[in-house]
Structures are given as structure tokens and as C-alpha cells.
Design brief:
Elements (H helix, E strand, L loop, with lengths): L6 E8 L9 E9 L6 E8 L6 H11 L3 H5 L4 H12 L4 E4 L2 H13 L10 E3 H12 L7 H7 L10 H18 L1
Length: 178
Amino acid sequence: MKFIKDLLFFEIQTTGQDLEKDAIIQLSAILLDKDNLLEKANFNTYIRVSYLDHIINEHAKLLHTDYEILRKSPKIYDAIKNFHKKFGHNLLLATHGFHHLLFLRNAFRKALVPYTYDHHVIQLWTLGYVYTLNYGLKKMPTFHTFVDYFKLKQKEPWNSMEKVRLEAEIFRRIITEV
């Protein structure tokens, strides 16, 4: 199947689920070619939310990374500018859940970067739901349901880059079977 635009799958790690008080601490993405769904480019950054040592340390534990790596990471403003500069906006966003899209839009707003992406978004959860109905799976279409169903391996569940690559692979497999 060929798409009109390249697809940008993205994944985030946050400090929690509340859009107003929680923040993105890792942003990862892979750009898939519209014709063959192969990876064309990728992006991965940790995001420093605070200058306070104890908060950086808490986030480093959440991400299973070194305190120094997180301390030297960019703030959201620079991370979003780099993300937008790398990929532009002439693509189709894709993610597992709508909540991630809300966090991304909020990050663009905080960074004062115009959010100019197409309002159509591929939502893997919705696609997965239709897939589970058609193929008789009796489980909700969670990320882990499909990792198990397609016999994929997840080594670092806290790592957004690994997760976004697995999401893209799940997407490829669903698209080729449908």
C-alpha cells in the first residue's frame, strides 16, 4: 500500500498523564517512506524539564538513563525546534494513542513553534481495533497485545525509540495483512 505522504511515527515518555502539569521527558520518532514504509530518518532526544538536581534524578530513573545525560539534554523549546526542523510538516503523523498527540501539540505551544501538521493522524489504536475485530482477536488492541500477537521482542519498555520502532513494525504488519 502506498500513502500520499511520508508517515512520521512518534512516541513520548512523560512524567505523568496530566496535560497541564506533566511534561514530555523523551521524544522519539521515525519517518517512514510513503511508498515502501521503510525508515528514512529518525529522531530521539531526552528533554530536561528542570534545573533542580532531585527532579532531574527522578526523571533519569523513569527513563533508566544516566543523570548526566538528562542534565545535558535540551529543554522542550529546543527539542521541538529540532524535531520540526528535521522533519518539516509535509507528512502524516502517526502514534499509538490520541493522548500522545495532545502532549505533542501542547509541547509545540509551549515552545512557541507553530503546529502546522495535517489534522489527519494515523492512530494505531484505532487501526488495531479494526484489525482485532476482523481477525478474531478477543483482546483490546494495546501495544502489548500486538507485540505478543506478532511475536515481537521489547527489551526496554521505558525507551521511546524502541517503542516507536515496534509501533512502526506493528503498523507494517497490519497494513500488509489487510
